[in-house]
Design brief:
0% strand; 75 residues; single chain; mainly alpha
Length: 75
């Protein structure tokens, strides 16, 4: 039985996050910024850590916080 590598898991998770951003149409601007920040952060975390799952999740968390802060001024 073969197991998926960390890189393929991180890439799959990042792709899923980015594809799910299409469901943002009913969200407020702040919520959209938070979701986009999480997606971009996940991709950035995966790239910077060579596909590490912890790096991907950490990047998503940091990106979500930054996106939320950016969205504070939006209605």
């Amino acid at each position: 039985m073969t197991f998926l590598s960390h890189k393929s898991i991180a890439l799959s998770a990042s792709t899923l996050v980015l594809l799910s951003l299409g469901a943002c149409s009913g969200m407020s601007g702040r919520q959209q910024d938070t979701a986009v920040g999480a997606g971009v952060g996940a991709v950035g975390g995966a790239i910077l850590t060579g596909g590490s799952g912890i790096g991907t999740v950490g990047g998503a968390a940091v990106g979500a916080v930054i996106g939320n802060e950016v969205g504070k001024g939006k209605r």
